[in-house]
Design brief:
Blueprint: H1 3-9, H2 23-34, E1 46-50, H3 53-60, E2 74-81, H4 87-103, E3 107-112, H5 116-123, E4 129-138, H6 156-159
Antiparallel strand pairs: 1-2, 2-4, 3-4
Helix pairs in contact: 2-4, 3-5
This protein binds flavin mononucleotide.
Residues 11-12, 63, 65-66, 109-112, 147, 149-150 line the site of flavin mononucleotide (FMN).
Length: 166
């Protein structure tokens, strides 16, 4: 799989087998997140890898569209001091890791944690830290069904403008 093929074929997958993710595979996924750049080189984010069932179940209650995340092989949370949170940095780390995971045969999905206090309590974050997003990971079930959320993307000529708006 070329990098381009990995990027354009990656879809968000939410149904996983019980197979754990081997340490070497997870190591490469985390390394892909580590190598994302950060605004002003602050590198404020910390990644919390959650395989513990009770912690995953608590995280499921921190999102409004997260009920399924307890069946993940692993969840990776993006934690940051509240006053240093930069979602662009989170997005770069998340996408790096999701593409690396896809190339390893591991499915992923981003999940929003809209209840900050529950997210903080679930993983024991300090009071002045937040964890607004996680990604879930796991080996996809055979014949993974299409997500009801799956949509065709906006056409390229609608997405892209050249030089000026119109
Ligand atoms: C910032 C962001 C937040 C998301 N939050 C959730 C979520 O809370 N729960 C969920 O199931 N999917 C979530 N998703 C996944 C989107 O629903 C998904 O990217 C969209 O359905 C496209 O999926 P596809 O690549 O399979 O077409 C999120 C995606 C993004 C980019």
């Amino acid at each position: 799989m070329t990098p381009y093929e990995a990027i354009v074929s990656k879809r968000d997958l939410r149904m996983y087998t019980d197979q754990p993710i081997p340490d070497d595979v997870m190591g490469r996924i985390l390394q892909a997140g580590r190598m994302a750049g950060s605004a002003k080189n602050l590198e404020s984010n910390r990644l919390i890898v959650v395989t513990d069932q009770a912690v995953q179940d608590a995280l499921a209650l921190a999102g409004d569209f997260a009920s399924w995340i307890g069946s993940s092989a692993a969840v990776i949370g993006f934690a940051s001091p509240d006053d240093q949170l930069r979602l662009f940095d989170v997005g770069r780390q998340a996408q790096n890791m999701m593409i690396a995971a896809h190339a390893e045969g591991v499915g992923t999905c981003p999940v929003t944690l809209g209840h900050p206090d529950r997210a903080r309590a679930a993983v024991g974050l300090p009071d002045d830290w937040v964890m607004p997003m996680v990604i879930t990971l796991g080996y996809p079930v055979a014949d993974h069904p299409d997500s009801p959320l799956k949509r065709p993307r906006v056409a390229l000529d609608e997405l892209v403008r050249h030089d000026r708006w119109s």
